Amino acid sequence: MQNLSMNGSSLQMEIGNCPYHEYLLVLQPNADVNEKLLNIKEEFSQKFKIQSAQHSYSPIILASFFQFKMIENRLVNGLNTIAMGYHPFTISLKDYGSFPSHSYL
Q: In sequence order, what DSSP letters do the residues of 69-103 get, joined into one string?
């Protein structure tokens, strides 16, 4: 089984009888930063006539990986355990670019 979707849903494939998915670990910008990003995307969309840029999600991707679906609960529990050990913090980005030119969304 192979389900390769480029419309924002997860990539789903199967090895033998063990399905696996693509996971993205992302940071979601706060409301103020997200609003600024949406305004920039709106300007970009109008200037270059690209409608998909107008309403796209604005995450900061920390990691992308594949994992067997049967491990998902352990993965989520492990990430929650790690997150409970940290207090919220602020990140300032300098010269943050974009996806590499070979990426297709």
A: GGGHHHHHHHHHHHHHTS-------SS---S-TT-
